[in-house]
Amino acid sequence: MYFSDRGAFGAERRIHSWLTRERVLLYSCAMLVMNIIVLAAWGWSSSGFMATDVTRPGVDFSVFWTASHMMLNGSPAAVYDYPTFARAESALFGAYVNHGFLPWLYPPTLLLLVTPLALLPYTFCYLLFVCVSAWLFATGTLAVSGISAHFRRPWIAMLVVLAYPGVYVAAVIGQNALLTAALMAFAVRWAEKKPVLAGICIGLLAIKPQLAVLFPVVLIAARAWRTMWVAAISAAAFGALSVLVCGTQSLHAFAASTSFAREMVLESRMQYWFASPTPFAALRLADASVTMAYVAQGGVALIAAVAACYVWKLTDDLRLRAAALAVATMLANPYLWFYELTWLGVALACLAVRGLEKGWRRGEQVILVLAWLLPLYEYVNRLMQLPQVGPLVLLIVLLTIVQRVRLDKQEAA
């Protein structure tokens, strides 16, 4: 494994590098300032986030906190009963969820993890959740990308990582996407040198099992057997503990909730398609049938899995491995909300370091900037209802990673 510069590309392949370290820092600072301005305007227009006719920050976190409150004060299986959960949500938050019902659609593993949340006041708990998740995301991204080496102070590099728009999106929504991205980054960082810790991180992804779908594939490609076995044992133990605490009824109820999510959201809800950077969503918006959309999604998932295996088999560069796994995982999932693009942030940090160290290939700098802005596009697209370009951007990023690996292999031969 390495993070050091192993030499620049040949002069015949080099192009003008306008995406320099200084510009990366400038763009990051500009994005952070814009985030502050947007939050200030949001707070001012909603009377300090107290207006009942405007959605407030942390709306999805209210689902976690409500589930925790019910876990601490009643039957865990009741969390999966939609009328019961709706009444609890309304009693705790009233108009906070903008007069809408947000159901609990997560496995018992996440239910177990969020149980302690309601021991703290909601506002304090939400802020603490965001701060801890953002810190873990930044720490994991710095560890796997080595981006700190390109800035004079580690805190500056952390600022650059946190300026990624996907961080703002996940934070204001109050989702756990920063946590899952951090687990992925740490798992890749430790996969060979600390397989037990890596396996535990992968096992913890059982809170959203669809995001761990490609880990077994790439671990087999890399022959990381110990990490794979620890991951399997960790996931099984985590799942068993969650069922023990939440009861077997919660497992059956979760299975029923997945059917609800598939039929009422994934397959039928246009608002979801505009905010989901997946081939399935793009095809449904193009009036393709559900069957055709699933077939196309399956084809793209297969391509993504093969690309991830190719990268993990041919290179031991942590940055390229993390980038390939992150992007391929997003492409392989038909059920993917815009806030899960935090995984893309890890990939872009890794690719940026590669470009700063070894020079840029033609078109890479433009691709990285467009991909960096993708979370904002997906976030506002529920209102703008523009074409769903997310899967195209992700496919281009994945192709860029594969090209990097292929050309590195040619130059080393």
Write the layout of secondary structure elements.
Layout lengths: L20 H25 L15 H13 L8 H12 L14 H7 L7 H24 L8 H9 L2 H9 L3 H14 L4 H10 L10 H7 L3 H22 L1 H19 L3 H5 L4 H7 L4 H25 L3 H15 L9 H17 L5 H21 L5 H23 L1
Features:
19 helices; mainly alpha; 0% strand; 413 residues; disordered N terminus; globular
Textual characterization of the structure:
With 413 residues, the protein is an all-alpha fold. The chain has one domain (56-412). Helices cover 69% and strands 0% of the residues. It has 19 helices and no strands. α5 packs parallel to α17 (342-358), α8 (177-190) packs antiparallel against α9 (195-204) and α18 (364-384) packs antiparallel against α19. The longest helix is centred in the first third of the chain and has 25 residues, at 21-45.
In a nutshell, what does this entry contain?
By secondary structure, the chain is mainly alpha-helical. The chain is 69% helix and 0% strand. The radius of gyration is 21 Å and the shape is globular.
**SSE ordering:** HHHHHHHHHHHHHHHHHHH
* Overall form: globular
* Cα-based radius of gyration, to the nearest Å: 21 Å
In helices, the fraction of residues equals: 55-70%
| Helix-strand category | mainly alpha
Kindly state the number of beta strands.
Answer: 0
The average pLDDT value, as a whole number, equals 89
Poorly predicted residue ranges: 1-12
Domains, number: 1
Quaternary structure: single chain
Strand percentage lies at under 5%
| Biggest beta sheet attributes | none
* Number of helices in the DSSP assignment: 19
What is the distance, rounded to the nearest whole angstrom, between the alpha carbons of the first and last residues?
18 Å
